[in-house]
Amino acid sequence: MKQGLLCGLTNEKAAFQESCEDYQLDDEVVNPSLGLGQTIGQKNYFEIHEKLRKEQNLYLGVGLASLVGLIGALLWGIISVKTGYQVGYVAIAIGAGVGLTMRRFGKGIDFIFGYCGAGLAFLSVLVGNFFSVIGFIANEVDLGYIETLVFFDYSLLFEVFEETFSFMDIVFYGLAIYQGYKFSFREVSEDEVIKLGESDN
Question: In the prediction, which pLDDT does 165 show?
Answer without folding.
Answer: 75
